[in-house]
Design a protein that fits this description.
Blueprint: H1 10-14, E1 42-48, E2 52-57, E3 70-74, H2 79-88, E4 93-95, H3 99-102, E5 111-126, H4 136-145, H5 148-155, E6 161-162, H6 184-193, E7 202-208, H7 214-227, E8 231-237, H8 240-248, E9 254-260, H9 269-276, H10 290-296, H11 305-321, E10 326-338, E11 340-341, E12 358-359
Parallel strand pairs: 7-8, 7-9
Antiparallel strand pairs: 1-2, 2-3, 4-10, 5-9, 5-10, 6-10, 11-12
Helix pairs in contact: 4-6
Length: about 350
């Protein structure tokens, strides 16, 4: 194998669930034909748009004969509906359930219930390309107004870890520190310096989406915390796909987003580049700092894991200093199986159907 340029994390890319080994027949066309040419335990036999997919056992799987004859995967965007389907027996496995619903499924009822730390952060994004959040005083006031400990421990009933920075305890370089306490008086002072107050209140829209169960709850809690410092936020909940073009174009005020910071591999370089560099393809905060880009530059040639992790730590600290959004909580990944064995929750949300997955009843 050869690459066009040195890649310091090539071994990690090759181990990614998104790196597929295809048969030579796949390359008879351009682009390659993925369906029916892979090496996994199942074959895709039918796809119903974005609603479902049907899989059948691949007896020639190199890892041993899969225990299941087939799998039907249903894509259900509503977390509550996923829980209801599991309770009704319509599905055998459901993932990313509302915390209150997940707790209802216990081992005594024949359920396998797993929750694992996830490399995912729910953050309040602030559009720096336009007023009022092009003013760091306003961004800092928003950060000071939010009680992140209360969000994780009260609003979400302890199902998420309050965030002090972008990276959390799911990774070796993540922060273990508690977030700063809210400072309502300090937030009001900064807003006054920026020209906002009782006679000129700051009014903004706060967007989010509902297919992650915790986000509307967080939005409501954040709205109340902002109101306490004189900021009126109007919540708008809509389908993420419909909102993404406006987000990427900087046509929004505030947005509550859940984002994995390990996109394909256990390395944060790609996320830092795509989300926070001046030319980043997913830079929703509209943040651009040549100094920050220079901080990331060594990642293109640095292979040593500890050296890369030190860059990640420094980058997270720089984002806090510049108040590039407000990391709120680090979430956990959950999943529940009914009368199944061999089921585990992947914190990267990449792997579900394995050769060892089977029904027990």
């Amino acid at each position: 194998m050869s690459t066009a340029a040195p890649d310091p994390i090539l071994p990690l890319r090759l181990s990614s669930a998104n790196t597929a080994i295809l048969s030579s027949a796949a390359y008879a066309s351009n682009p390659p034909t993925v369906q029916g040419t892979g090496t996994g335990p199942m074959r895709i036999t039918a796809i119903n748009g974005t609603r479902s997919a049907t899989l059948a056992r691949f007896d020639g799987y190199w890892g041993g004969r899969p225990r299941l004859a087939g799998v039907t995967a249903n894509f259900v965007s509503d977390p509550a509906a996923r829980a209801l389907s599991l309770r009704a027996g319509d599905v055998d496995i459901a993932q990313e359930l509302p915390e209150s619903a997940a707790l209802e499924f216990t081992g005594s009822d024949g359920y396998v219930n797993e929750t694992v730390a996830s490399p995912r952060t729910d953050s309040l994004l602030l559009n720096q390309s336009a007023p009022p959040f092009d003013d760091v005083r306003v961004r800092r006031a928003i950060a000071m107004a939010i009680d992140r400990t209360a969000l994780g421990e009260q609003a979400l009933a302890g199902s998420a870890v309050p965030a002090s920075e972008l990276f959390g305890p799911a990774v070796a370089w993540g922060s273990q520190e508690r977030p700063p306490a809210p400072d309502v008086d300090g937030a009001r002072t900064l807003l006054a310096e920026a020209g906002f107050g009782q006679d000129n209140p700051l009014r903004v829209s706060l967007g989010t989406y509902a297919n992650r169960a915790e986000l509307p709850t967080l939005a409501t809690a954040v709205q109340g915390m902002l109101r306490a410092v004189g900021v009126e936020a109007t919540i708008q909940v809509a389908d993420y796909d419909a909102q993404e073009p406006d987000l990427l174009a900087g046509r929004y005020d505030m947005y509550l987003l859940s984002r994995s910071y390990l996109l394909d591999v256990p390395d944060a370089g790609s996320t830092l580049s795509s989300d926070y560099s001046c030319q980043g393809s997913y830079n929703i905060n509209q943040y651009c700092s040549p100094a920050f880009d220079a901080l990331l530059a060594p990642l293109s040639t640095t292979a040593d894991p500890l050296a890369r992790q030190e860059v990640f730590r420094r980058a997270a600290a720089a984002l806090n200093t510049d108040v590039v959004g407000v990391p709120l909580v680090h979430t956990q990944a959950n999943g529940v199986g009914s009368n199944v064995t061999g089921y585990t929750v992947d914190p990267l949300a990449k792997t579900l159907v394995t050769a060892g997955l089977a029904k027990t009843g």
